[in-house]
Amino acid sequence: MGLLRIMMPPKLQLLAVVAFAVAMLFLENQIQKLEESLSKLERAIARHEVREIEQRHTMDGPRQDAALEEEEDMVIIYNRVPKTASTSFTNIAYDLCAKNRYHVLHINTTKNNPVMSLQDQVRFVKNITSWKEMKPGFYHGHVSYLDFAKFGVKKKPIYINVIRDPIERLVSYYYFLRFGDDYRPGLRRRKQGDKKTFDECVAEGGSDCAPEKLWLQIPFFCGHSSECWNVGSRWAMDQAKYNLVNEYFLVGVTEELEDFIMLLEAALPRFFRGATELYRTGKKSHLRKTTEKKLPTKQTIAKLQQSDIWKMENEFYEFALEQFQFIRAHAVREKDGDLYILAQNFFYEKIYPKSN
């Protein structure tokens, strides 16, 4: 006998294929919904287990809320590098301190010397760690990084900072010394009366625009070791990179200051709640602008870029920029041209032992 074949009309075959495809899509959709429901259920169970454990610990005996106590004991140090938009950022901290209930203190060193004496280092560390009346506290000043661990401190402060393209920072500082800014326009500056442009200074080989003046951001991050202030030291740059990654909570760049503020608000709301909106809408967002500043020519920039000191400072700046952009890429998403902070992306489950 030949094989019995059941033939279907083409239209019925097409309908059967379409019906099968629709059924598969429906099943896939239902499976996806079930998986989403299961995920929500797992999260709900996990949250319930966490609450049960927290309640059980509360019932075991009276104790202070450790998380709250930790927040109230928090200290932030912003060892600001000159001419990196530090005043603009610091004013946000001043504007928020009353509302967010923390103290802001300016570290005013004699002649803005960024290196403290050994005895002042001890005093400073003792003040920061034991001055309970000033906690939570936000300290800012032109002081190079200080390693609190060297002084036997159990809890170190949180370091943050902002850095800037090294040539742009030097140009801004050059004109600031001559013409001041719109923050305190009546204040007489050290080089007031000198009308020489930055281009003319570089062309004549002047000391105020020499490549050695670029050496500032590296020693600020390197710290209080003598080698940090040895201009052109490879060891100092390596130490500055190490500190940036391991000792600083977050380091932003002047060119992307708003994103830096947004990340701080998301990560440290105890201090920076409301900072992003204040920066975007407040009158003090760009409070301090150097006056009479003229952009350098390409020839001037090219001459400075021939220096090994510029190459090292620029390498450090690019390193900091890469770190900041890496952190930002894992913390925010862009939608319709705006950045928004990602919600919490982890939860706890499989918590044992189970409560009775």
Named at the architecture level, the CATH assignment is 3-Layer(aba) Sandwich
**How does the overall form come out from the CA principal axes?**
extended
Give the SSE string: HHEHEHEEHHHHEHHHHHEE
Number of domains: 1
Task: Predict the CATH topology.
Answer: Rossmann fold
Report the average pLDDT across residues.
86
Name of the top-level CATH class: Alpha Beta
Structural class: alpha/beta
> How much helicity do the residues have?
40-55%
Strand count: 7
The main β sheet shows up as:
5 strands, parallel
Beginning-to-end CA distance, first to last residue: 71 Å
Structural Rg: 29 Å
CATH homology group: P-loop containing nucleotide triphosphate hydrolases
The share of residues in extended strands comes to 5-15%
How would you describe the overall organization of this protein?
With 356 residues, the protein is α/β, with parallel strands linked by helices. The protein has one domain: 3-Layer(aba) Sandwich (Rossmann fold), CATH 3.40.50. Helix content is 50%, strand content 9%. The chain has 13 helices and 7 strands. The strands form 2 sheets. Strands 2-3-1-4-5 form a 5-stranded parallel beta sheet, sandwiched between helices. The chain has a two-stranded antiparallel ribbon with strand order 6-7. A hairpin with a 2-residue loop joins strand 6 and strand 7 (338-341). The radius of gyration is 29 Å and the shape is extended. It starts with 9 loop residues before the first helix and ends in a 15-residue tail after the last strand. Mean pLDDT is 86; it is low at 1-5 and 182-189.
